[in-house]
């Protein structure tokens, strides 16, 4: 009897297991998640006659166009770049052009292009020729306005003169004619145009990192500014759009000690009167955004991104249309996309956590709704998993909102789990389709996406709770998420992994370094490993945010701040890592340099700890090319399955397999990034002293086919027991005066003074500190920085000082300069690379050829030729990254 019962039980158990296995979703091809959608990003032309959209061309995302009534199969490409995808585009106001942006290899130096979709391609070409409207090397363009009054005009910002700040230009779309309207010497971040396309407001960042809104008085070319609104570095504020009365302007702001959530207000720039419009009716989240009609200029709605999106309509007709669309597209979030100029015909998108996106053409008059396409059409929706909103308490009791995606068809018990923190960190995850979460859930993982402190959208108190908490309380928010899932019985504590990109990559490294017992695997994508070097290498066009970084992350220029950032850097705890780790990097990343990944890989290699390393030579901050994404995820899912026990897709296409071989790095070949401690650098000893006299030079700066001629005079004389060196440069940019006072014998810098236009700088070296003031347009700010030692060959006469060194073939010396813009030490290394005969207007000379660059290899390089007999500087050649790769040539005159 017992044997029969046992047999029946065994059969029931076998049947149960069979049903459980069959209920689990099949392993879906990674191409379905991360390949380029066949069709996406459609936009309706202003007259409604055409639809443009994104579709692969030779394997890369490009722009296609078709008549609205035609099938998508009748479309033709209007761009055809097989290497770099088009990340964004839009129609010109009159529909004559499609405007798009593109960079090279992920460096984020975006140029703006225009293509006429009606133009026929030249013979032998697949697409009409696109015009580069902002053509300049190593320049990042910003689009400020697309005016209604002149549809052939763009207002753009270009950092071609100063990489930290964007000058204001007008660009004619049809011809590419570009006109400089105003140089940005006031730290302007953006311009606000009124409803008649006149510049009325400007927003700038002051030297404290605070936001200031300025009233623009007069024409932009010669405007003066009056500050009318401001908020602190820990608040948000700024204009959005002018009210239909064209006097008041809508603001988003959380200014004020009693304010927390971002709200919408109306502000009068003339009187300063501010009136409330709306904040979250549920008092839970920040304003997501106001919605306006371009026809009436009315505010027609407001949106809020809570656990699920919420919209509050002000316009009854739009509200009725929205509700009608919801009834026709149940279970999906409906969004109004592009429209005709009269707003009667719209492209509507509908999506959900299990719907990547549907596009519908909606005629508001006839209430006709016509489906256009589905994004990732081949992805089987029935196998996708639900995304749930959850909340849990962190280490200090702070409640953390998060999203949890559980694998479909599997009991939510003792699952392998991935913590997937978002990038930023000043961003947030939101409810909806997430390819990463769905891919990992399909592989059998529970996926937790925490909106940890420092995430945006939940008010400034929540945001500011993360100030200076990288790797500490912010990391606790992830660790306590693991504890929550373990306590719920969802996560297997021995099979928890962490994966993320950018800040999420940092959190991955911090997780395996600071909490090594929590995680069994980590995948760190474009991940900062050393917060000091991260802050040292931020792009120049982020200069306005440098103070914000220092306030929110930590200030490396202070002793306490530097110690904190060093403590929070995973690189400095690499000896604690015992978790299997994969590191992924784009070689051209301008935000998180490749050296950030190199140094953590080298640190692990040096202690014989295994680490897998993938570097794509044609990518930047994240992978844009599908073949690179496919290769990365093929490696990552196999890596995670090996260490966490999830599922993975066997094999890959020949193209992906080959690409994975190409971008997988043998860690034995990775060179340790060079970094010299400024405190350990001494001061070179001159072999001779300076010689009084005056030298004159002809100089030329060349950039993007343009040339600027200058005359430079260097005067050296004795003054009050010091050497006084005055360097004057005169040219089309005006006059620049740089003066230094040097200690006799050592030639170390004691004082420096600079005057250029509205800017004056006075600096004195006292002990190991640099102290002084910088004044711009009458506003002064103090300069105070630790130097770690004396400054040498810095400022006026720097090259003359270098000429006094005991130069010989093979000679090298390292010394300190002071970067006035960043207010930090800038190390320089001089190397004599040979002896050459040089002919300049002053004659022919046998000269030492010396190269000056950063010891780390970052930044530009200067070459000088020093006459062997007189030690005069006879020729200078420099590549200047601070001027976007411009070259400088200077030659001694008779």
In words, what does this structure look like?
The chain has 14 helices and 49 strands. It has 894 residues and is α+β, with helices and mostly antiparallel strands. The strands form nine sheets. A 14-stranded antiparallel sheet has the order 43-42-41-40-39-38-37-36-49-48-47-46-45-44. The chain has an eight-stranded mixed sheet with strand order 28-29-31-30-32-33-34-35, sandwiched between helices. Strand 47 and strand 48 form a beta hairpin. Helix 12 crosses helix 13. The radius of gyration is 30 Å and the shape is globular. The N terminus is likely disordered.
Largest sheet: 14 strands, antiparallel
Question: Which secondary-structure class do the elements indicate?
Answer: alpha+beta
Mean pLDDT: 91
Rounded to the nearest angstrom, the radius of gyration is 30 Å
Beta-strand content: 35-45%
Q: Uncertain regions: pLDDT < 50 for 5+ in a row?
A: 1-22
Total beta strands: 49
**Which overall shape is indicated by the principal axes computed on the Cα atoms?**
globular
| Total of helices | 14
As laid out across the biggest beta sheet, the strand order is 43-42-41-40-39-38-37-36-49-48-47-46-45-44
How do you describe this structure in short?
By secondary structure, the chain is of the alpha+beta class. 17% of the residues lie in helices and 39% in strands. The protein is globular.
């Amino acid at each position: 009897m017992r044997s029969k019962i046992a047999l029946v039980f065994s059969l029931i158990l076998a049947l149960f297991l069979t049903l459980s296995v069959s209920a689990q979703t099949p392993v879906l091809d990674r191409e379905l998640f991360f390949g380029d959608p066949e069709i996406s990003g459609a936009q309706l032309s202003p007259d409604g006659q055409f639809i443009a959209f994104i579709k692969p061309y030779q394997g890369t995302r490009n722009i296609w166009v078709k008549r609205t009534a035609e099938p998508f199969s009748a479309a033709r490409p209007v761009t055809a770049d097989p290497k770099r995808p088009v990340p964004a585009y839009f129609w010109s106001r009159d529909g004559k052009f499609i405007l798009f942006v593109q960079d090279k290899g992920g460096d984020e130096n975006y140029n703006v292009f225009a293509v006429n979709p009606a133009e026929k391609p030249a013979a032998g070409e697949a697409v009409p020729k696109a015009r580069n409207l902002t053509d300049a090397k190593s320049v990042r363009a910003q689009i400020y306005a697309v005016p209604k009054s002149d549809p052939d005009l763009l207002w753009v910002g270009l950092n071609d003169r100063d990489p930290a700040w964007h000058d204001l230009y007008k660009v004619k779309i049809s011809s590419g004619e570009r006109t400089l309207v105003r140089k940005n010497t006031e730290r302007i971040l953006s311009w606000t145009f009124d409803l008649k396309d006149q510049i009325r407001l400007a927003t700038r960042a002051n030297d404290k990192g605070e936001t200031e809104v300025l009233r623009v008085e007069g024409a932009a070319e010669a405007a003066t500014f009056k500050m009318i609104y401001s908020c602190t570095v820990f608040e948000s504020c700024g204009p959005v759009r002018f009210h239909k009365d064209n006097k008041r302007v809508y603001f988003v702001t959380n200014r004020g000690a009693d304010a927390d959530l971002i709200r919408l207000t109306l502000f009068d720039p003339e009187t300063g009167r501010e009136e409330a419009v709306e904040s979250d009716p549920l008092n839970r989240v920040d304003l997501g955004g106001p919605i306006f009609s371009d026809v009436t200029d009315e505010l027609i709605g407001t949106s809020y991104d809570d656990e699920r999106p919420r919209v509050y309509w002000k316009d009854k007709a739009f509200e009725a249309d929205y509700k009608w669309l919801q009834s026709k597209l149940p279970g999906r979030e409906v969004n109004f996309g592009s429209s005709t100029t009269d707003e009667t015909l719209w492209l509507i998108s509908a999506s959900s956590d299990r719907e990547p996106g549907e596009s519908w053409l909606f005629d508001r008059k006839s209430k006709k709704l016509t489906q256009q396409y589905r994004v990732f059409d081949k992805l089987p929706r029935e196998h996708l998993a639900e995304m749930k909103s959850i909340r849990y308490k962190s280490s200090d009791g702070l409640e953390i909102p998060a999203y949890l995606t559980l694998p479909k068809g599997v009991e939510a018990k003792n699952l392998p789990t991935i913590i997937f923190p978002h990038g930023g960190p000043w961003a947030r995850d939101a409810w909806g389709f997430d390819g990463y979460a769905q891919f990992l859930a399909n592989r059998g993982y529970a996926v937790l996406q925490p909106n940890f402190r420092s995430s945006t959208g939940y008010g400034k108190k929540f945001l500011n709770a993360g100030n200076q908490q990288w790797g500490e309380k912010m990391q606790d928010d992830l660790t306590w998420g693991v504890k929550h899932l373990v306590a719920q019985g969802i996560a297997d504590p021995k099979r928890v992994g962490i994966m993320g990109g950018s800040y999420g990559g940092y959190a991955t490294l911090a997780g395996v370094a600071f909490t090594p017992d929590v995680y069994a695997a980590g995948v760190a994508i474009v991940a900062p490993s050393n917060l000091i070097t991260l802050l040292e290498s931020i792009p120049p066009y982020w200069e306005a945010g440098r103070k914000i970084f220092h306030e929110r992350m930590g200030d490396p220029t202070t002793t306490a701040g530097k110690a904190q950032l060093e403590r929070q850097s995973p690189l400095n705890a690499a000896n604690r890592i015992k978790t299997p780790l994969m590191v992924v990097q784009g070689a051209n990343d301008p935000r998180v340099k490749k050296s950030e990944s190199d140094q953590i890989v080298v640190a692990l290699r040096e202690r014989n700890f295994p680490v897998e390393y993938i570097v794509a030579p044609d990518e930047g901050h994240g992978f844009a090319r599908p073949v690179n994404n496919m290769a990365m995820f093929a490696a990552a899912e196999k890596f995670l399955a090996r260490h966490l026990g999830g599922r993975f897709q066997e094999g890959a296409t020949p193209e992906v397999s080959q690409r994975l071989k190409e971008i997988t790095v043998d860690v034995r070949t990775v060179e340790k990034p060079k970094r010299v401690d400024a405190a350990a650098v001494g001061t070179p000893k001159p072999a001779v002293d300076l010689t009084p006299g005056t030298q004159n030079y002809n100089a030329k700066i060349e950039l993007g086919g343009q040339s600027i001629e200058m005359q430079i005079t260097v005067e050296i004389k004795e003054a009050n027991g010091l050497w006084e060196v005055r360097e004057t440069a005169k040219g089309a940019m005006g006059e620049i005066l740089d003066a230094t006072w040097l200690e006799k014998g050592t030639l170390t810098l004691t004082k420096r003074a600079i005057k250029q236009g509205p800017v004056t700088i006075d600096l004195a070296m006292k002990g190991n500190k640099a102290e002084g003031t910088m004044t711009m347009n009458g506003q002064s700010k103090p300069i105070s920085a630790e130097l770690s030692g004396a400054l040498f060959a810095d400022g006026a006469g720097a090259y003359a000082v270098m000429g006094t060194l005991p130069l010989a073939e093979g000679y090298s010396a390292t010394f300190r300069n002071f970067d006035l813009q960043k207010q930090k030490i800038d190390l320089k290394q001089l190397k004599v690379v040979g002896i050459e005969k040089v002919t300049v207007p002053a004659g022919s000379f046998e000269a030492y050829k010396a190269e000056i660059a950063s010891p780390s290899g970052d930044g530009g390089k200067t070459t000088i030729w020093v006459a062997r007999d007189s030690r005069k500087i006879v020729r200078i050649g420099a590549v200047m990254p601070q001027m976007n790769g411009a070259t400088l040539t200077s030659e001694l005159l008779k």
